[in-house]
Amino acid sequence: MNDKENIPLEQKDVEIAPANPKILVVFPYKSELHSPESLKLAIRSLANIKGVECIVAVVGDKEDWFGETILHIPSESPLDNQSLSNVEAACLALTLEETSSSFILMQPDAFILQPINLMYLLPKVDASGVLGCGLPV
CA 30, CA 108: separation in Å to the nearest integer? Predict the structure, then answer.
């Protein structure tokens, strides 16, 4: 007879994995450049990322409909240059406690239209040190 069978469940060495891992998704957003409706659709489309819980952070302007589930990071800098706004959003995201080793930087007018696995969205580094997007070639 195995000794572990006689031990109550709460005393066994049992590791329970979280139901879904979490990942931060950061949107640089200026209301003058993007419509609030496109941001809503982009956030809703995150439901198509399978097997993960997305934590949403918006860097820039705040809309009235943002609830407790959306982290808002105010930004006073003019985000009219898309490259600079992406860099600023990424830098600010790195300061959040919700940020793990990886996060997704997504544009407010980009939508995930079909179910997709998270591994296709995260960068991969191959044996030679080349950074890729994770998509099969």
Answer: 9
State how far the Cα of 12 lies from the Cα of 6, in Å rounded to an integer. Answer: 10
What 74-79 contacts at long range (C-beta under 8 Å, 24+ apart), as own/partner pairs, is 79/28, 79/29, 79/30, 79/33
pLDDT in tens, the chain (137 residues): 455 455 555 544 544 455 668 888 989 888 888 899 999 999 999 999 988 889 999 988 899 999 999 999 887 766 566 666 777 777 777 777 766 667 888 889 999 999 988 877 766 655 555 545 544 44
Which pTM value belongs to this model? 0.70
Q: Report CA torsion sign: 124, 43, 61, 74.
A: negative
What would the two tokens of residue 74 be?
Answer: 């105010």
- Both tokens of 129, joined, read 């040190």
Rounded Cα–Cα distance for residues 79 and 67 (Å)? 23
Distance CA 22, CA 54 (A): 6
Structure tokens at 12: 């066994």
Strand partners, 109: none
